[in-house]
Amino acid sequence: MANEVKEITSRDVDFAKWYTDVVKKADLVDYSSVKGSMIIRPYGYAIWENIQKILDEEFKKTGHENVQMPMFIPESLLNVEKEHVQGFAPEVAWVTHGGSEKLEERMCVRPTSEVLFCDHFKKIIKSYRDLPILYNQWCTIVRWEKTTRPFLRSREILWQEGHTMHATEEDARNETLRMLKVYEDFQRNILALPVIVGKKTDKEKFAGALESYTLEAMMYDGVALQNGTSHYFGNGFAKAFGIEFLNKENKMVNPYQTSWGTTTRMIGAIIMTHGDDNGLVLPPNIAPFKTIVIPIGKDEKVLQKADEIKNLLIDNNISSKIDLTDKTPGFKFAEAEVKGYPIRVEVGPRDLANDLVTLVRRDTLEKIQVKIEDVLMEVSNLLVDIQRNLYDRALKRRDSMIYEAHNYEEFTDIANNKSGFIKTNWCGDVACENKIKDDFGIKSRCLIEDEEVNGPCVCCGIEARYRIYFGRQY
Amino acid sequence: MANEVKEITSRDVDFAKWYTDVVKKADLVDYSSVKGSMIIRPYGYAIWENIQKILDEEFKKTGHENVQMPMFIPESLLNVEKEHVQGFAPEVAWVTHGGSEKLEERMCVRPTSEVLFCDHFKKIIKSYRDLPILYNQWCTIVRWEKTTRPFLRSREILWQEGHTMHATEEDARNETLRMLKVYEDFQRNILALPVIVGKKTDKEKFAGALESYTLEAMMYDGVALQNGTSHYFGNGFAKAFGIEFLNKENKMVNPYQTSWGTTTRMIGAIIMTHGDDNGLVLPPNIAPFKTIVIPIGKDEKVLQKADEIKNLLIDNNISSKIDLTDKTPGFKFAEAEVKGYPIRVEVGPRDLANDLVTLVRRDTLEKIQVKIEDVLMEVSNLLVDIQRNLYDRALKRRDSMIYEAHNYEEFTDIANNKSGFIKTNWCGDVACENKIKDDFGIKSRCLIEDEEVNGPCVCCGIEARYRIYFGRQY
């Protein structure tokens, strides 16, 4: 598609420009005439299709069913739960006219679907036998963002949203954590993202939730990307919507609720975690094509062998493509790097004469000559190694960019001079969170549950109740 | 889900009421508080997921790639192609505000995406090397219908829309017909719908298209359901949008375009073609569960055998579920019928003592005792037979409801007294089409290409140029 591989800005020179270069040059997205909305091109959408396929299987394995709710929310319905509407009303798109007629009541395009699900749950939940209800929806939501960036912040967001109802608080709490774990495993094992998982502070939780859990990924530049959330609602929405069921003790009670969601933003996390100055680097487990086979020259034997290898890989469930365009080998190599195929298989006449081909791993750009008869085994092993290496490399970088602050002076020094997360103690008072936000523009990421709290709050100095991460965010 | 199987209105008494009963009682949809929008429940959505899976594979096999365009169209963009905007402007939903701010330019929610794709194509098509571009999109569109019915006519429509660009007219015409064939094969072989396929008249074609082809399914009540369309655009949109490419002769020319789409309406066609007074009847090739195993009583051996049979079927790729609720057998049978599982496997203590189980086929309600050791083979064969029988039965009914009219008197008689399609001769003048619509509220369905034209136009009496179907429509 007239796709020229041009220079990509170095990520250490201008990370924002690097990001834009990569998403454009790897043909992931294009800008559209619709302000704030992006076009997801075939290569970008293929990544999303892989994400959907794998996550959807996990949701079904854990007993969830897909449904489709309306995309519009009448204003009165959005208004039912007070905290929720306050959180979302400022950023919704309002539909006011159908054809030439003004609507009696305006409707917003869903920014999230809790109220739509609750409206439905009210009709279908009668008895404890109806519970749990474990629903998920794949759809597009709209939030009217002022400034947008492909995958990271967009007016239209492709996502999935799970919405579940349970007979007891315990069941709902378990579900919240169970789906958080599904997300964590997926992001670690498939996307190779060493996410930090924890509870949000009250200030940062989802509008209307009692507890919000988050997956925080650290990008190459040290900035956080909130990469998925799982919420426990208690029975607040159920009460607001009048959802009741007859429990085993024959009493009418309100059920307990969760919701959880992930979006195309995960693609942004992949790019900004693994990418380098040559372009995109895709973890094998999510790449649309795990290898690209590039024949060098037009020799019949070379072309035939290249095709054989591609077919061998595909037949063994290793998604692969072959580049048969009339571009120069150098151009093809550069393009393969921009697009981030995990392994490039170079098939050239000189190698072939010695029954060899060259594998180039995208993560390290290392070249490895292998015997043709071993190519399947070597590629298979290398894919496992690349997947592991990407995770380890990201983990190492992440850990090297977490700084401990014992007092406000240290916090100030880190906040002003370092990129990354700040690990510290916190008293639990929102006033301290607000002060840090006002002073440095930095928000809390999540609480740290597996470390002992010992010492004063980094901000006010009284005895701390929590270990916590702070960090700038996308 | 508090799902009681109650009486369903007979389809011969009140077909509209029968339809509503079935979609509700089979748990396919629920009504929502959002006027004109429906909720697609898990069982209904599972049918759509099967449709998506099978069609998506066909699209990919024929070289198409999925993309995602914006869901909003700025008014100025919708206005670029004149015929198109005239066709759609009266029925779009307008977004006028983002949060509390009035938009500088209002935007509609896409009613279809030709203009969005053209806006993108203009940027990515430069050379003949970039063609063909074969894109598809799965998404939701909005058309502001006044009266709505689940699956048939809804303000929100889940669909797929293919959009392709080609270097030559011939290539684009071939694509239009190729995708029409993909639809036809899918609807005949998977949905068991004996669709009539043909070209729309100029009056009935898609706004902006040069030619529209349609798949017309006849419902049980003789009314037509337009079940998919494929359009050839020539280079009209390309010219309006300034899309040009350098062809092999080194000249800048406009490419040729197609689009084609199918929607959740196909689920409505399944219901209204195959369903009966006991509820839904699903063709095995699209059913979320091909069999339901129902143990009779609570005998341990019965339960164990029922579970074994379910697992045996699943292990052999026959999607199956088991009903372990504490409802009565009679209730379970009725529910299995309402939900239209192609085969019900009854496992009871008396049968079991003789190493037998009973299969009940949903299409005929015939009961068949089979040896337990033969159950896999018998079920497999029966599924093939049910699929074939549903198609044949629908074809026979369809053909019995097609009436030939040789003159306006006959046409009038049929139009006033019969349900079904009217096959006749037409001169090609829109005045005759309009007269028939004014007199009877009946539109043309499609031209018949494989029959010789012989005789006068049914309306004006001058020599006919076309054989054509007329019929009422949903």
What does this protein structure show overall?
2 copies of one chain form a homodimer. With 474 residues, the first copy, chain A, is of the alpha+beta class. The first copy, chain A, has 3 domains: 15-274, Bira Bifunctional Protein, Domain 2 (BirA Bifunctional Protein, domain 2, 2-Layer Sandwich), CATH 3.30.930.10; 291-384, Anticodon-binding domain (Rossmann fold, 3-Layer(aba) Sandwich); 402-471, Translation Initiation Factor IF3, CATH 3.30.110. Helix content of chain A is 36%, strand content 27%. Chain A is built from 14 helices and 23 strands. Chain A has helices at 15-25, 42-61, 75-78, 82-88, 114-124, 169-189, 236-241, 265-274, 300-315, 329-339, 349-353, 375-400, 408-417, 430-440, and strands at residues 29-31, 38-40, 65-66, 72-74, 93-98, 101-109, 133-142, 156-166, 196-199, 211-218, 224-234, 245-246, 252-253, 256-263, 291-295, 320-322, 343-347, 356-361, 367-371, 402-404, 421-426, 443-448, 466-471. The first copy, chain A, has a 7-stranded mixed beta sheet, with helices on both faces. A 5-stranded mixed beta sheet of chain A has the order 16-15-17-18-19, sandwiched between helices. Chain A has a 4-stranded mixed beta sheet with strand order 20-21-23-22. In chain A, strand 1 (29-31) and strand 2 (38-40) form a beta hairpin. In chain A, helix 2 packs across helix 6. The longest helix of chain A is centred in the C-terminal third of the chain and has 26 residues, at 375-400. The two termini of chain A are 31 Å apart. Strand 5 of chain A pairs antiparallel with strand 5 (93-98) of chain B, so a sheet runs across the interface.
